Amino acid sequence: MTILMKDVLALNLLKNADVCTGEVYVEERQVEWVSVIETPVESFVKENEFVLTSGVGCSESPDQLESFVNDVIQSGASGLAIALGPYIKAIPASVLHLANQHQFILLTLDWKIRFSDILAAVIEEIHDKKREYLEKIENIRKSLLEYILAGESLDVVANHVSKEIDCDVLIADKRGVILGKSPNVNSDLQDKWLLFLHKQLEDDGIYQSFDHIFDWLHYEGGFALQLKIHSAGNIQGYIIVGGFGAEPFSEQEHNEWVMLLEHVTTAVAIHFLHEQAAKETEWRLRDDFVWELSRNSIPSKEAMLSRAKSLGYHINLPYISLVAKPEQLEKSFRSMEHLSISFDHWLHECIRYIEEEAESMAKSMALKSMVTYQQHELIIFLEVTHYEATEQARVYISKLAERLQLLYPSLSLTWGIAKQYGYSCFDSSYQEAKRALEIGRKRIGPASISIYADTKVDRVIESIVQNRELIEMAESVLSSLLHYANERQIDLLHTFTIYHRNRSNVSQTARELNLHRQSLLYRLRKIESLTGCSLDDADDLFLLDLSVRLWLNGIDQKENEYGF
């Protein structure tokens, strides 16, 4: 525990000491310990140590004293007190010049003052400071627990911590949502931290490792410290403390702040756990209500309005349904090897965060929303405020996907958008979005966005897929392509689908498939030779496209036959 040189000089024993050099630094120079040293210094003086000396061994010449003082300065000592007496009667000008050059605190003492008394007084001052610090920590710990147990907001917690440590304080969850902050927080601190976190999320996603509990960031007011709040091996959020001078901390300062802020992070972690437990019930009620809306299983309009009001939903507004299926969930989980939580725990938390982000994104666009996650699908009813409802939905999906990509870099979503929207058409709109998702996932693949209005042909295909003659025709046209794909691991069906979707544009198709132009041309010739169809003939193109669509609609039954 440290005190300052001004605290040392304020002691009764040193009130008559003469500060020869460095007086302007007494309010910033720290003192961690005190010792008595005579020549030689060698490695006996530690950094931030207040040194006492009688000068014995330096009395024969000013050069000896100058060399001794220089060694003390180089050791990183806080200051040096020389007792004037039989060995050193006055401080030579060369020594004073040396001390001034190094901005070093040099003082002289009356010979009659015993060093043992000074040692005892300085050590007692350090111990008093330590006791005061520990009492302060204990008071902060007790008061924070009282606030948390009383259900106070994190704004109150941040304000209390700010007053106790005289620093700006921000408290945020791990998505970067600021949940509490002290009054009059430096706006640049908040802006710089959000940029800092955005970079962290870009690098590591929402689940960061514990390699660094402390992180520094610079803003116009100085330096700020970001501390990770964690429990059960999982990051819950962050505390950001601003108002520091140039980093880094000394080891002593580091230990002091760790001791102090660990109590703060523990209290905030408890708050997060309490909040999560309280939200779980509300989430379940909201999930159940939105799920029942989508299935039209609420018995009466009155019951629907009553439940909607109690949950804070506004159902007397026009809504459009969006349905999304998260892809590669297990792969995303396995990619984070540092996580100590189970897949089920991670998945539950992931779903909740996705739901919260879906609601937050709607709020940022000044739209109402209702969200649930059921049967491996994210179901969203989004308020419509524009006559181009599907375009508004696309903008929303684009923004949400960008945000989720930041939090979960390896996770992607496949989307379906309903055609129907308006008042009290939740179930029919949901069914359309779900069908659009299913068709788009088969037709285009994962991570696609499909609109129900654009699936007319696919729905026609579905209605005729039971025609055995058509199925046999599709099999005869495509069997060679499927066997080739199985043997060579080259999906010519997908190549044709992208080529046809791009209206036979070779350059655009090559870019989308990430192929060299010549490689694509080779594949297209191979499709023609295997199927006997010309890609330049409109009838052959129609036959190929129809066969592929029929095949894709029956792909679940055909997968095992060809080893897919």
Question: Any overview of this molecule?
Answer:
This protein is α+β, with helices and mostly antiparallel strands. It folds into four domains: 3-126, HprK N-terminal domain-like (Udp-n-acetylmuramoylalanyl-d-glutamate--2,6- Diaminopimelate Ligase, Chain: A, domain 1, 3-Layer(aba) Sandwich); 130-273, GAF domain (Beta-Lactamase); 314-452, 2-Layer Sandwich (Alpha-Beta Plaits); 467-553, PucR C-terminal helix-turn-helix domain (Arc Repressor Mutant, subunit A). Helix content is 52%, strand content 18%. The protein contains 19 helices and 17 strands. The chain has helices spanning 5-9, 62-74, 93-101, 115-149, 154-165, 187-204, 251-295, 301-310, 329-334, 343-364, 389-407, 426-443, 456-464, 468-488, 492-501, 506-513, 517-531, 538-553, 555-558, and strands at residues 3-4, 18-21, 30-31, 33-36, 49-53, 79-84, 105-110, 168-173, 178-181, 214-219, 222-231, 234-244, 319-327, 369-374, 377-383, 412-422, 449-451. The strands form four sheets. It has a five-stranded mixed beta sheet, with helices on both faces. The protein has a five-stranded antiparallel beta sheet with strand order 9-8-12-11-10. Helix 10 crosses helix 11. The protein starts with a strand and ends in a 6-residue tail after the last helix. The model is unreliable at 555-564 (pLDDT under 50).
